[in-house]
Amino acid sequence: MSWKPGRSVLLALVAGLTVALVAACSSAEEPAAPAAPAPTATSAPSAAPTATTVPPTATPSGPTRTGGTLTVSDAQPTIADAILFQVLASSQGPKLYLEYLIGYNAETTAYEPQLATAWEQSTDGREWTYTIRENVAWHNGGTVTPEDVKFSFDIWQHANPAAPNYAEIELFTSDVSVSGNTVTTKTAGPMFTVPYRTSSLTTNTILPKAHFESLVSKTGEIWPFQDYAEDPVGSGPYKLIEHKQGERWKYEAVKDHWRVTPDFDALEIIWVKESSTRIAMLRTGAADIITISRAQAKEVKDAGHNVIASPLADISMYLWPFGQYHGPATLTEPNPRVYDPTNPLDNLHFRKALSYDIDRETIIDVLFAGYGIPDTQGLFLKSDPAYNHDAWKVDPYDPPMAREYLKAAGYENGEGVGDLWFGSFVRGMAPELQEYVETLTQTWKKDLGVEFEIVLTEYSALRQKQLRGRDGARWIVPLPLSIFPDYSLGVLYTCHGYYGVCGVSEYPQTEALFEELRFVKTKADETRVLREIGDFLYTGRHHLNCCMIQALLGTNSAKIDSYAYITHGAALGALEYVNVPR
Predict the structure, then answer these.
(1) How far are the Cα atoms of 55, 264, 288, 290, 561 from residue 554, in angstroms, in the given order?
(2) Which of 14, 211, 337, 489 can pair with 326 through a Cys bridge, CB separation 3.0 to 4.6 Å?
């Protein structure tokens, strides 16, 4: 299996993702489903409002450059504001000054060359060989070499365990060699997914060996990657020249970059938590591009600015019941949870009652201003080959049916459910999250008599604490998860419960499937296994998805003509492709 371009390709969208680790849990034997009452009529999905939807095509700038500074404002990073992803899943800032072996084209959903011009799998499937692009300059001088690439594989192994992709790194980075202008990595078994692991869909960037070693001490299992902030160097189309944690990033364009020369001479990203402040910055000209919520679209357009919607509704608003099965009784810390018949959230009928009492249409229209579609499987886009269109049907808003399921669960009128909690926190990609939580809890109380206590907290602290044991038995957490077409694998990778933050791999039913997924040999095998995982999650209602919503940007219409491709997970990851009026 190989990928060898037949022509020079300049386009390589940086469309990476700060992966939110996803968990699912299990079901035990359940009683037969209740007889369905007369179905309640539901309206057809509302059409999304008109926005300046930009085709997902990125093209390098024309011969006439605008110059000047492009100023962007987004919400503050929610987990870490780090120079390198290996510290933790950080902001999108690193994607502008760093590059990957393989790029990803969001329009074609295909891999494209970046620092590797070709990649090829051996006939036995146990080796991947990359041909390294020549004459790519580091920002401080010198060029990218195969030795830099080999060393970067070693860097990835010493990340913080809470950084994305950490659990999978050892599968393909332990045996790496250099021969001439190629780098070869060996795997324990045939591993179709290695190109994904080294692409811009992940956080595995290439760094300069000598410069890194001059700044970061290679001691211990977790290297002090934060020391790289003293003098960050990459090879991307923007050079990072200033970094103030939690405040701003400043870059200057790299003229005649091999991939693309940005239209602007300089780029500044300013982190501003309050959305009203970002809108004020757009109005006064202090920012040219800002992230906005769906509800703010009208205000921004009425002020004479453009609203650019992501081409896909690809932010999943799903609910994660912590109370479900987290592992066999023999599993030790951090997740000793087992099926508990006295816990409502362990009861499939109870989860179905909650799902049938989610008014998805109204939530989309009112909370998300129509920028979304109802959906029931929050880990796959409908364009994904693994999406099971025949089986994964959206539960209608049907309170009578919900009450029947609640009765079958043994909690008629909400009696006997005990204490239940609903986490709520700030997430930049979904500022509507608090209102979303309040809407759900009010509906369940009114229709079912089921009450949840809303707990305001930080997401990262909540998931680490609540999954450590039975403390998490009666929690539901809402997660806005940004996903992309045709690579559900990136969302569903198994993490074996490190730090107590992951649960999906601890299902006996899914554990075997994830092990198989690690070493699939073909795309068809990957699609089959992902669908089996999706079938399991859907059948057990292990995630109670509401909808898929679109990401929005507000832009200065006098300065920004179009943005080649956006999704919130990478809204700041492809700014080199911003186009300006000509």
Answers:
(1) 16, 18, 8, 5, 12
(2) 337
- Which amino acid appears at position 269 of this protein? I
CB 483 within 8 A of CB 473: no
Conformation bin of residue 133: beta by default, left when phi > 0, alpha when psi is -120 to 50:
beta
Number of C-beta neighbours around residue 515 at 10 A: 12
d(CA 182, CA 185): 10
The residue count for the chain:
582
Tokens of 362: 């109204």
Residue matched to tokens 């992803």: 85
Q: Characterise 81 by phi-psi region: left (phi > 0), alpha (psi -120 to 50), beta (else).
A: beta
pLDDT in tens, 141-174: 999 999 999 999 988 887 766 555 566 677 888 8
Structural domains of the chain in order of their starting residue, each with its CATH number = 69-236+252-311+551-579 (3.40.190.10), 313-549 (3.10.105.10)
Helix (H) or strand (E) holding 3: strand 2-3
Provide the pLDDT for residue 163.
Answer: 56
**Could you give phi then psi for residue 500, rounded to 5 degrees?**
70, 25
pLDDT tens, position by position, 498-542: 333 344 445 667 777 877 877 787 888 888 988 998 898 899 888
Model confidence, pTM: 0.76
At residue 444, the pLDDT reads 98
DSSP of 18-70:
-PPPP--------PPPPPP-SPPP-PPPPPPPP--PPPS------SS---SEE
pLDDT in tens, 447-477: 999 999 998 876 656 655 555 544 556 888 7
Asked if residue 25 lies in contact with residue 325, where contact means CB atoms within 8 angstroms, the answer is: yes
DSSP per-residue letters across 146-188: HHHHHHHHHHHHTS-TTSTTHHHHHHHHSSEEEETTEEEEE-S
Lowest pLDDT segment from 100-114, 140-154, 288-302 = 100-114
Decide if 531 contacts 489 (C-beta within 8 A).
Answer: no
Angle at 310 between CA 78 and CA 528, to 5 degrees: 85
**Residues with Cβ within 8 Å of residue 370, at least 6 apart in sequence:** 46, 47, 48, 49, 294, 364
